[in-house]
Structure formats: C-alpha cells, structure tokens
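We close this part of the discussion by returning to an individual protein. The encoding preserves chain order, so positions in sequence and tokens coincide. The sequence in question and its structure tokens are set out directly beneath this paragraph:

===
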Amino acid sequence: MSTTPNSPEARDVAYHLHAYTNAKKHEEVGPLLIDRGEGVYVYDNHGKRYLEAMSGLWSVGLGFSEKRLVEAATRQMERLPYYHTFTHKGHNPVADLAEKLVTMAPVPMSKAFFTNSGSEAIDTALKMIWYRSNALGKPEKKKIIVRNRAYHGVTIAAAALTSLPANHNSFDLIVPDVIRLTAPHFYREGKPGETEEQFATRLAEELDAAIQAAGPDTVAAMFAEPLQGAGGVIVPPATYWEKIQAVLAKYDILLVADEVICGFGRTGSMFGCETFNLKPDMMALSKQISSSYIPASALLINKRVYGPIRERSGEIGTFGHGFTAGGHPVASAVSLETIRIIEEDGLVERAGEVGAKLQAGLRSLADHPLVGEVRGMALIAAIELVTDKEAKTALPTPGQLGAMVNANLQEAGIISRAMVDALAFCPPLIITEAQVEELVAGVRAALDKTYKELGA
C-alpha cells in the first residue's frame, strides 16, 4: 500500500469499509484500485494491466469498454433519467425489457418483476412464494430447500438461503425452516465406487426423504443455481436435474432457478436452464443482464405463480412490494442494448466455442501437483487446489493455498477469485482464443511459483 498520507489507497483505507474483505487486514495491505477498463483488461491507478478473468463479479459479459452501452445510457438519461413502476405507472424501456425477457425465457413465463440486484430478486421470489401460499389458503406451506455451498445473495432473507459459512458467521438468520441438503459436487461428496448417476440418485433420494420429514404440505419451493457459481463452480452430476425435478413435481414444489451467474450466455446457452433442461417456475436474473454497467435485475414468474398473486392483490387492493429504482429506465435501456449485442454478435455460441478452449487449457493443468480437479463448462470454470491429490487436501488452514496462488496470479497480471481453495474463472464473453492462452499460461506460472514457495 502507498505510504503517502493523501494517496488514493490511504484515503480508501481511512474511509471505506469493503465488501467481502478482512477489515483488519485491509488496514495493513490496502486496496488494488482499478482506474479504467479496455475490453477484457482493467488497469490500476499505477497503470498496470490485468486480464480480468472474473468479469468483475461474474458479470461484465461485454468487457469494460462497450461504447454502445454508454450511448444507450446517455440517450435514456437525456430523454427520461428516472421514473418508477408503482401505482399503474411505467415507461417504454421497462415495458420493452419485460416483453423481451418473458418472450426469450426458455420456458413459458407470464410476468417480469424488476429489482436492482440478484439478492433483491431472490428476496422478492421468497416474498412472492409466501404471498402465494397465503393466497392459496396454505399458510403452512413456507419452507424452502437449498443446497449446501449455494449462493443466493446477501440481503437479509437471501443470505439465509445462501449456504456458505462466511455469509452466516456472526450474522443472524431470519428465514425459518430452511432445509439444507448435500452440495452436488461429485469430487467432494461422491462415495468410493459411486458413479455420477448413482450420486445423482442419492441426492434425489435425500431430497425426497427431506421433504417427507418436513411434511410435503409445508414445503413451498427449492431455490437452486443451474450450476453453482460462488460456492465453487459446481457442475451438477449427470442425470441430477432430471431426477431432482421429478421429486419436486411429485410433491408440487416450486422450482426457483437462480440464473444470476449462469444467465445470458455463461454456460454456452442463453440460460443455464437450457444447458441443464430445467423447467423452473421462477427465474432470477442479474449481472450480465446489463453487463454490470448499471445495477439491474429481474424476476420472471410463470402463470402458476402469478395467478394466485393476481387474485390476492385484487382482494387486498395492491401488491405491496417494490423498489424505488426497480425497472429504472436507464437500467432497462442498458439491459436491452446488452441483450441486443449478445444476440447480434452471437456471443452465446461464441462462449461455447471459446469456452471449449478455456476448458481444454485449464484441464491441461490437471497433472500439476497442486491441482486436484478442473471443472466447469463454456466460459465458467474452477481449479480445485490441493497439496495431496489422493487425500484431496490442501494446507492445514482452509483458504491458505487458494490465497497464495491467487496472489501470485494477480502479481502476474491476471485477476481471479479464490473460493477457499478453489480458483474461479469467468472471463467476459468477448475474450479471444489468444487471451485464453494468455490466461492459461498465467495460471500455470502462478501454480509453478506457488509450488516452489511451498518448498516442493
């Protein structure tokens, strides 16, 4: 960190409490301040260039310098910088975006409800589910199912559905009766001699047993990511979703697909639901919907969800939920332009093609002494770090090895993210094959450097 008292780094430490940061350590090491972006690269305020292999926070699909998004925001700012969607009011951009999202959804949807972040979309889904159960005269049908290592956000309700220790430690959880089940990670949770299909069957049987134990009439919905992102880029085992959805249908339980990371091309399909053949009742969308140039998110709901909400709001006189900036005209305009670019430039198909190069490149590192598993699909991946391949263990302190490799990678000019002892990769959809090669070479160098530092 710069020792100059008035440096940007020093002022940041003095006044800024950072998200997902060790506040005490931050006072010692200070921040990496990013000054500008160009394509898949960002530059710090000292001019050093980094390949942003995480798209910021899994989200800047179009890179850091897409002029069409800036122009879309500017045009809308000049015409109508703000309006809301409360009390029978709206505006053209949000109406156009609602139509676009509902009609492009991979399964029939009825309505779009707009929020500002993935967490708000998840909170909204939870409130709608409770509202719906009450409207149906089933006030006991409120329990929610999630998977361990799932990530569904950090607002006060969404955080309770997230199943990661850092999101719960020292926080109170207010959502009652959350049913948490085994993470669908075959590498960590599969039993000796078990196939992926057998693992998937066991998880489906676990789900069925949990529903029966809770009482089927008390379970309202399962929230799930098509592919679990922040929990470690966990690709579900073969036949998993087919079997899970059969259990949910058996007990008339809603499925909420958290598409916040998977949506808009990340898995090689427009939505993760298409990649894994999910048929959800609700879909939470955010991040790449606007390439994160401006906060935006949406919740899509089908007729099964909308019908009871419609009737109950008619009885009460309103649906008493909404956000000041939900469906913001500038966010709507930027989101529409983002989707246009993804479609016009064929970025979903491109994610599959260039993503194959990324997956092959990272898998070429599988024989490295520090690599336990390489997993992912298209343009999302993770490397599980170990020091003992057979035992699947890393250093004694969880996260220590991940932090070491991630620091060496950043020093080499590549930004990744350590998820305990796994490194995540989620580069912009516009990344080229040459830039993928640059990324993989940087990862190999960081692994080699760390291995030497460990004295191996």
Notes: The radius of gyration is 22 Å.
